[in-house]
Amino acid sequence: MKNEHLIDFLLEHNKKQSEEFANPDAMLLRRQYRAKHPTEIAALKCMDGRLHLPIMTEIPLGVIQPFRNIGGQFDLGWPFFGLLMKEWIDYAISRARDCIVLVTYHYSKSDTHLGCKGFGYDTEGAKKFTANLKIQFERVFGQNHSVVYPIQVGIETDDDALIFHGKNGSLLNLAEENEADEEILRIKLQKLFPDMQRVMIEDLLPLVLGNIRHIAEVRTMRRPVEDIDHKEQILGIGRGFDWLHLHNKALIVGPFSYNLQDPIAKAAGILLENIKKGQVPKEDGVVLMASAVYRDEVGIERQLANEKAISLATLGYQTVKEQVPELLPHLHMLVGTVDLNTRAFTRMPFTI
Predict the structure, then answer these.
(1) 299: Cβ–Cβ under 8 A, 6 or more apart, which residues?
(2) Which phi and psi (to 5°) does residue 138 adopt?
(3) β-sheet bridge partners, residue 156
(4) Using one digit for the tens of pLDDT, what is the confidence trace for 15-58?
(5) CA-to-CA distance for 117 and 168, rounded, in angstroms?
(6) CA torsion 111→116→309→303, rounded to 10°?
């Protein structure tokens, strides 16, 4: 029988995170934060395990809505992704809230090959892609930014620093901001995004201030190179992974594109490389974790989530078997659903 230490760790971590998320004090903190900062914020990110915006910005879990895919590559023309974004924006509009969409790419300032493998380490290509994705959001949801404001954001993973792209090529690199002066940063954001509504500026500001504090902490830690390289042990497929906010632990493939096999195979290849390089404990192996989400416990939504999780797990396993078979001896399967009301993960039986 395979060692299931990593699965036990994940189940225990989820239990703790779910309890913390559903704790009355934590719920009150989120409600207070939401009341003060009502803007809905989504982040389109790469599957890379180093990209955790709640950690990087010190924002409460559950405030930033994550969407992950290889290289941060998305297309509103994908039926499921376009539908999800429309539902998310409709939800915000129904509550008279504005929306900020962070369209992100990432890179390493110290080593090109510590950057985005999903883009073949081509940072300029990633910048061009995300700039065009921002334009697509403007084309679909309007260019006056009265409700939906997409922002192109770079993430430098050595310092965990955010770089905001503004109008006419202007930049705000938070790695260069030595002091978290709220009023100065407010003015800089207003200059960067002159057509952004004031409420959005005020709701973007906490992310900026939190990231500057986080960068200072990272620099104090002086992370060794092995900690800024890939060290993931988990391949997550599906949705409902925002409780797994552990630095460099998981590669997340969202179920958005027409072709899921390619990002699954690439992620599996990274996990195999991590084992071969000794970046992760070989005796623990790696976990392929399939997850689907639901909110309504009494309707068919939960049953559909069960079926989605099984389908994603089957696809994931078959893809690894066909394209990265060398990983199979190290592979554990963990399949289940996540209740979005509590972030609790429920494990389901799964047989190959």
Answers:
(1) none
(2) -65, -35
(3) 107, 161
(4) 999 998 889 998 898 899 999 999 999 999 998 878 889 889 99
(5) 28
(6) 120
> What's the full length of the chain, in residues?
352
Whether the Cβ atoms of residue 104 and residue 131 lie closer than 8 Å to each other? no
Structure tokens at 231: 């060290």
3-state DSSP call for residue 59? coil
Residue 19's closest CA among 304, 333, 243? Answer: 243
**Over the stretch 197-240, which tens digit does the pLDDT of each residue have?**
999 999 999 999 999 999 999 999 876 654 555 678 999 999 99
Q: Which of 313, 335, 350, 330 is nearest to 3 (CA)?
A: 330
Residue 259 makes CB contacts below 8 A (sequence gap 6+) with none
Phi first, then psi: give them for residue 119, nearest 5 degrees: -105, 15
Domain with CATH 3.40.1050 in the chain: 37-224
Span(s) in the chain for CATH 3.30.1330.140: 230-348
- For domain 37-224, the CATH class is alpha beta
Sheet holding 99-107, edge to edge: 64-68, 40-45, 99-107, 148-156, 161-165, 171-173
Q: Hey, is 284 helix, strand or coil?
A: coil
- Domain 230-348 matching CATH 3.30.460.40: the answer reads no
User: Residue written as tokens 């979005």?
Assistant: 340
